[in-house]
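Fold sample X.
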Amino acid sequence: MQKDTLIQCHRRIRPYIHNTPVLSSRAINRMAGADLLFKCENFQKGGAYKMRGATNAVLQLFGKLPVVTHSSGNFAQALSLAAKSAGVEAFIVMPSTAPQVKKNAVAEYGGKIIECEPSLAAREAAAQEIERETGAVLIHPSNDENVIVGQGTACMELLEEHPDLEFVLAPVGGGGLIAGTSLAAHYFGTSCRVIGGEPFAVDDAYRSLKSGRIEANETTDTVADGLKTQLGDKSFPLIQRYVDSIIRVTEAEIIKAMRLIWERMKIVVEPSSAVALAAVLRKKEKFADRKVGIIVSGGNVDLGNLPF
């Protein structure tokens, strides 16, 4: 994927997305000992950065074929909304344990929900069955080149506003956001290093970078419900090539960082979004006195089930 691919993607999706604000907090900067700039994708359409990749993927389909995906929530909402904008049908496979607030949003955006057991194998099997039955085009939430490029446009916008960033941090789940972010930093940054944040409980990406092959998770016991998926063969090579490192954080650190953003910045973010800030606070010495971008991935939190 080249620089022009990102530029063309951004031009293509711009009418359908928000150029989200970049916010900062003096209080959090003091705590971190660094200049932190938060790219607030919690204000994106659909409540998360995934609207970018979903829109790019849908807009590049030929004809009016229906689409199908499997997602715990944010990509489910994004694809439903992108499909609605493009006038196509969207089938969304969701684990039965997905937050009700996310199921409600998918239904509101017109997505047809099919529930399944909360495992990656069950999600993939259900999506493949719909693909066979309906002729729908499968769009993977993260392991799709059009999706990855679309996700990278958040970092593009951040670097347009702050071209002198020394680091950009993003949470790591399926790898689409960090892969796209690393591409954008490579082509539009100036010696800008990309670092992932990942829970210890689901540290497959950290282990994958160490072993050189895609590793799986044995548990999904994390409050960061958007980060329970694993890397794919499209995202992993980009992560290997362009991502500097991955910092793992504890559940307590995620919850503390999430609460900090709510209290100090007065914005609603979901647990997955707090992982990048938690990584900065865990490794303060690495980012001391540096200018650091943080991709706030989304704000689709179940208000009836807050972790604090």
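Fold sample Y, listed below.
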Amino acid sequence: MKVVLLSGSNVGSKTRTAMNYLHKIMNDKHSDVEITLVDLAEFEMVFSDGRNYLEYEGDTKFVLETIMAADAIIIGTPTFQASIPATLKNIFDLLPVNAFRDKVVSMLVTAGTAKHYLMVEQQLKPILAYMKAHIVPTYVFIEEKDFYRKEIVNDDVHFRMDRLAEDTVLLVNAYKSIQEMKDEEYGF
């Protein structure tokens, strides 16, 4: 199983801090999973111009192919102006409309206040549904107050991140089992 942890911003540190912690959880508890952390701050991405994702070059091609090869994607994103960052929106624009078909996608969101949870419900989930993702219903929402000196200090957030990792892996396995049963019906 291949899981991509996508840190969806090119600025700030809180989302990357959370994604690093999630990466550690995945390594510790799911050693059989191939995990790739893609932090958009570390790549030179071009803006979408409508080409097929395979026609891009360099960092853009690497990021897109890494996402497309994954069984699951855990998207980490900050909330900027009550919305997703432009860097993450650009990833969605670069990918084909069915990019997340047969993929499990879960979310981890950092924000300044609790009111920004609506961004996930009204913006991120509809985009992922449109792109045909199997969305993990629960997500981790981390507020400013849960961080101190670039560390997550809220034990409940740690528990929810553990659960997010577990739910993501379980859902990938469940969908694989369902697909195998469907494939067996054809008998060839």
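Sample Y note: The first helix runs from residue 14 to 29.
Also: Strands lie at 2-7, 34-39, 72-78, 104-111, 134-135, 140-143, 147-148, 151-152.
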